[in-house]
Design brief:
Pfam families: DUF7987. By secondary structure, the chain is an all-alpha fold. The protein contains two helices and no strands.
Length: about 55
Amino acid sequence: MVSRDTKETALLVTVAVVGFLAANALGAPSAVAWAILIGVGGVGPTVRDEWRRRQDA
């Protein structure tokens, strides 16, 4: 069984990849596309996990 955190992380990574591909397809600067990928797919799950840990404490 997959945990809730894993499902949410997978969702954020999927959204990040789709956003990255959409930004590239629309001709956005590469810095914007990479910011979407790293911000939503990398930093987003980390911030969400840290926020949850602080809520539990």
